[in-house]
Design brief:
238 residues, alpha/beta, Rossmann fold, seven-stranded parallel β-sheet, 30% helix, 18% strand, binds 2-phosphoglycolic acid
Length: 238
Amino acid sequence: MQIVQFDSEIAWAHSIADRWCERLRATPSLRMCLPAGHTPVPVYAEMVNAVKSGLVSFAHAEVFTLDEFGQLAPDDAGRCTQQLRRSLIDHIDLPPDRFHFLRTEAADLAEECRQYDLAIGRGFDLTLLGIGLNGHLGMNEPGTPVESTTHRAELHASTVAASRRYLSHTHAPTWGVTVGMKHLLESKEVWLLAGGPNKAEIVRRTFQGAITPAVPSSMLRQHPNCILFVDAGAGAGL
Ligand code: PGA
């Protein structure tokens, strides 16, 4: 795992977006797995500007939402897909049929997961990830087997509490569906994003603690092509 550290959030977001534009220009059909959450929002804003300025295009790319909450209506603003639409998808030139997302309201969730795995197929070229305070990646909570594919996950109490930040009501979901560790670890390239001092301790454990499924983010140290992008706050413990 390579670490790239920046003094400011602006420099952090700008650098990640620059590299992302490079990847898209080199491979217009780039297959990406992208997270919701607060962390990537400034990066997505930069990418929206790049598309609007004609510097890059998603016209031939493919995007998979990393995860999705259960127990929220499909149009709930807190759904991961809705967050991702608002911050990125609605403002870029990605064709609608190249945006994949998880329907956690599906009657047959196992079949929904199976279809998502089929769509993922040969896997991702680039995966962007935030880090949960307990080291979760997507909704792969501590202890998730490394061979897991898309699956339903019960959320840890800290994840349920953290999800309240995305909601305009008090009905925080207790489960979700997530792309599994297998596809994250098999992605050709993984960029782990962390910003702000509240991520400093989990960033330190990710990079310096034991490599163990008990801290899913630490498993990325075994990935051959993973970059951890931190700002000054998140990198303070390194
Ligand atoms: P955040 O969430 O980007 O909103 O901090 C990260 C996560 O819990 O995976």
